[in-house]
Amino acid sequence: MRSALVALVACQVGLHACVQGARLAAPLSVLRLGHSEWAVGLVMTMFALFPAIFAIPAGRLADRHGYHLPVRIAAGLSLAGALLAASVPHLIALCAAAALCGAGSGFGMIAIQRTASRFARDEADRLRVFSWIALAPAVAGLFGPMMAGVLIDHLGFSAAFAALALLPFATLVIAQAVPHESRAPVSALNRKQPSAWGLLRLPSFRRLLLVNWLVSASWDVHGFALPILGVERGFSASALGAVLAAYAVASMSVRVVIPFVAERLPRRHLLAGALFITCLVFVLYPLLQSAWAMALCAATLGLALGAIQPTILATLHQVTPRERHGEALAFRSMTVHASMTAMPLLFGAIGASAGAAVLFWVMAAALGLGGLQARRIDTDNGAPARREEHPQEEERTCS
Where is the Major facilitator superfamily (MFS) profile domain (predicted)? Predict the structure, then answer.
């Protein structure tokens, strides 16, 4: 399955690089058209709003039809969004393009992560698989905006969006290397599905969603408050860039290392440990005066948050029924995108009234409480739920 796993990573890079490139190009295009910062905020909201709204239907689609149909839909949405932005330079078109690219990336992420879990032989292997999968957003976050920025400077916005459209097209082609799942029996497809919200009755799943939200909020707080704190300390732009680079390098490095040491990692305690480390870093940040000290904290934060994402994905597949992994991933996606939509406004209000230091410390308190909840996650929680909900349903495996 090594070639199939490489194909999954490449497919996610294609979809994610497209949306990341569009997240750079769309606001710049809005400003060039003469619109205000409010219009920029509207376009940026579209990237997160529609993936949150359609996450549950996307998860159900993946559970019913496997990998290929959802990824074709995802690539089609991203392709349409990029081509729309390339051909119609108008605010409404850019809002629609942002919604299409965001929804395409969200649809594809759920199907890709669900399918990746089918390649794992055991729990250590699942952590290894999701560590490779977690590299895709990091690679895409570097490649997509860089390509869009260079093309905007040399060939203009239309050329940049047209080039971004090639990425989901490549996803369509590469997806053929992923094995097809055996179809579920017709009776299983026609059976009335239980409510997706019923998954929230699983205590470990609720705690895992809380952990996932805390991780997402931590990323947002770090990206939002660190520049403010750096300006208060009188750091130069290059010094702040070095601090953020230390975070990015550490985050990517730990995801490369995890596959080789997955068997030795105490997965039961990794979630809580990463949250407690992040809590400590957030407590220390406002107390530091040196850019080098902040870079060291940023690298520590990158190691903790870089390790926790594949751990969350691996644990999610342990605590939920196998036939509902798509819905479980959809809940995770929905909480992430809802946080991306709403939390910056809250951060701005806290930062404006109390300062960046208080924002770090409030988040540290939340992370400490989240670490206590993470220790209570029972990784055997999904097995009984699986037997109770669909006792006669046949498993679908990759052929």
Answer: 1-382
